[in-house]
Amino acid sequence: MQPVFHPEAVDVGDALRARVNELRTVTRGLAEETSVVPVLRSIAEGVRIATESIAVHIEKQVGSQSELIVVAGNSESNSAETLNHRLEGASRIVIALGRRNERQGTLILFRSDRAAPVDAETLDRVSDLAMMASLALKQGALGAAIDQTREEALRIVEDKYRLISGISDELKDRLGAAMEYVALLDLQGDLTAQQQDYILRSRQSIEGVIRIINDLVQLSRVDTGRVSPRPEPVNVASLVRGMVRDYQLALGTIGFEFETSLPGDLPIISTDIDLVRQVLDNLLSNAVRYTPIGGHVRVAADVRPGRRKADPLRYLCLSVADTGPGIGDSELIFEEVYRVERRGARPGFRLAISRRIARLLGGELTLESEPGRGSTFTLWLPDVPPDSHPTYTDLKQQTDAALLG
Description:
Blueprint: H1 14-32, H2 37-51, E1 55-62, E2 65-73, H3 80-88, E3 91-97, E4 105-111, H4 120-187, H5 193-223, E5 232-234, H6 236-250, E6 257-261, E7 269-271, H7 273-290, E8 296-305, E9 314-321, H8 350-360, E10 364-369, E11 375-382, H9 392-404
Parallel strand pairs: 6-8
Antiparallel strand pairs: 1-2, 1-4, 3-4, 5-7, 8-9, 9-11, 10-11
Helix pairs in contact: 1-4, 2-4, 4-5, 5-8, 6-7, 7-8
């Protein structure tokens, strides 16, 4: 029989146990702190105490030069002047942080000439802390690069919004003028049936272009944070019934049926009713566009757990299913200006807008589809009770924590 090994039964010694605890503390700090400076300060102080140094500096590498970011000094040095005086006669020990080809910085120890030599155990501890300092510097550099990239991305998106807004205003002015000329032509008498058809088609084309321009502006507004949800108690079942009824009245003779499946015990949730209505309208209009004569559109709702095991939230799910041609790549459909290849199909931004709005609401918009078998879009809304009155930030933090957890 093989002996059973119990790590907790092994006496690894107080010194090693202290080193493990120290490294655990540093690691926790790297995971929890938003800035690496407090962690580096803790590391520098640990090195100073372990080596009985007068002071310990940590410098980070900036191009071909170094920048001092952390100083740990002996408490006996009550002033900068006293410390500088003591450092003049101190010996220096310089430890490189990071690999030779990716130097992160340096760890500098200032020790008195009369200080005792550093033993092997202390060297091991300093080596561990130096490695953690290197990781902290690397994490700080990555964080700075991410912040810079984020700021640059926000600037680009903001510039894009201003460009789109300016161009859209100019285009809508020109299209408005064209629409007025079309209206004047429509007022002329003695028009043939063909001329009337040409005027109708011109008006529809202009309206279609204006609609696409408005969608593009809306997409840019969402991307730049100009759309802010305003949560309120919402009876989703009542909202869905009203919208489906409106579509049935408007499309009663189009040649296909609407079907609804709305349980009577659906909860009242806190969300932005206008944004939910916008997404549902986009999904219903998309289903109507791609459902052939003789098909049907089914709208259903239920409550489900999160799609990931780590997600503690429950979601009220609204599904819109059609019997259209289906979609091969279910993710491409959410890209801007993507369309299903079908005669009469138009490029647009509404599904891209809908997914962004769903995420603004703390949820998601998903698609299940198979070519030739139709498509089912599902809007996932967090099942948040109205009395909690969550803000958008609350919902976003909850969802992010669930996704990252």
